Amino acid sequence: MITKNYTTHFILLSVLLVFLFFVNVSLGSVSIPIKEIISTLLGGVPSKGSWEIIIINFRLPKAITAVLVGSGLSICGLLMQTLFRNPLAGPFVLGISSGASLGVAILILGSSFLGGVLISPTLSNWSLPIAASLGAFLVLTAVIVAANRVRNIMSILIIGLMFGSLTSALISVLAYFSQAEQIQQYLFWSFGSLGNLSWAELSVFAFIYFIGILGSLTIIKPLNSFLLGENYAKSLGINIKRNRNIILLITSILAGVITAFSGPIAFVGLAVPHIAKLLFTTSNHKILIPAVAILGGIILLICDAIAQLPTSEFTLPINAITSLFGAPVVIWLLIRKKKIFI
């Protein structure tokens, strides 16, 4: 009976996800009839050639990116909240996002120290993702090394926060000595964006994303056992150290690649797992992982639709919209703390 109820939940959420996906593709500064959009997505030829370019090369990759980013961040948040048994843990508590931001900051702002060596021969489409990935990888390595030297799981959380503070301080120093144009360039990246990926970039992003998703599906049993504490997990034969490193690695891969390709996007990973737990009233990760993935995609599609300011030519920063949405949700959840399932 429980499975039947969850099946209904998943069907309704999947239908809503598909509907919002088409709505997202239909929004933009150029008005395109919905029947033309559906026809184009199904392989047809629209009335105007420019519409096909807009739909296939810009709107469709952006909508797919929104789903991947929203679902990936939400799964990261679920993994972190389970590992640390802390409802306020999110995908960026380990400093992975800050590490990615530091990589981008060194690329953009570091040219002030190196006379433009880093910034030339101009920032290609791959420069920012590569710099962000390297920064995230360095912080990930440091966190895993530190995690293997401490036994208390809360110590890892504090170490991650300290890495985040350290990288933020380094970025502040770089920004202090940088020119206004470079700071503005870095600031625009930090706003987050879902619409700058080509199909080639999206393919790389999706490949790494699916590696992280498949990894998360292999640790459902350890995740469920972690909910009852490490001692209980040990009694079930769970290798605590190995599974802890796997969870950290999967979270870092997902958070790192998402930050690399779309910039830092806040609150989705923190708020969506709580919404999923309230809707599904379960702590079983076999249900929660697909649930947060679908809900995360839905939430980010809604935030992106709001950010596009329909009927307007302006687009708001996606990071600001997710924060405006996520912060009240987190406050509301804290007020209703007894409803939070950890």
From TrEMBL:
<feature type="transmembrane region" description="Helical">
    <location>
        <begin position="197"/>
        <end position="220"/>
    </location>
</feature>
<keyword id="KW-0812">Transmembrane</keyword>
<keyword id="KW-0472">Membrane</keyword>
<protein>
    <submittedName>
        <fullName>Iron complex transport system permease protein</fullName>
    </submittedName>
</protein>
<keyword id="KW-0813">Transport</keyword>
<comment type="similarity">
    <text>Belongs to the binding-protein-dependent transport system permease family. FecCD subfamily.</text>
</comment>
<feature type="transmembrane region" description="Helical">
    <location>
        <begin position="92"/>
        <end position="114"/>
    </location>
</feature>
<dbReference type="Pfam" id="PF01032">
    <property type="entry name" value="FecCD"/>
</dbReference>
<feature type="transmembrane region" description="Helical">
    <location>
        <begin position="246"/>
        <end position="267"/>
    </location>
</feature>
<feature type="transmembrane region" description="Helical">
    <location>
        <begin position="154"/>
        <end position="177"/>
    </location>
</feature>
<keyword id="KW-1003">Cell membrane</keyword>
<feature type="transmembrane region" description="Helical">
    <location>
        <begin position="126"/>
        <end position="147"/>
    </location>
</feature>
<keyword id="KW-1133">Transmembrane helix</keyword>
<dbReference type="GO" id="GO:0033214">
    <property type="term" value="P:siderophore-iron import into cell"/>
</dbReference>
<dbReference type="InterPro" id="IPR000522">
    <property type="entry name" value="ABC_transptr_permease_BtuC"/>
</dbReference>
<dbReference type="GO" id="GO:0022857">
    <property type="term" value="F:transmembrane transporter activity"/>
</dbReference>
<feature type="transmembrane region" description="Helical">
    <location>
        <begin position="314"/>
        <end position="335"/>
    </location>
</feature>
<feature type="transmembrane region" description="Helical">
    <location>
        <begin position="63"/>
        <end position="80"/>
    </location>
</feature>
<feature type="transmembrane region" description="Helical">
    <location>
        <begin position="287"/>
        <end position="307"/>
    </location>
</feature>
<dbReference type="InterPro" id="IPR037294">
    <property type="entry name" value="ABC_BtuC-like"/>
</dbReference>
<dbReference type="GO" id="GO:0005886">
    <property type="term" value="C:plasma membrane"/>
</dbReference>
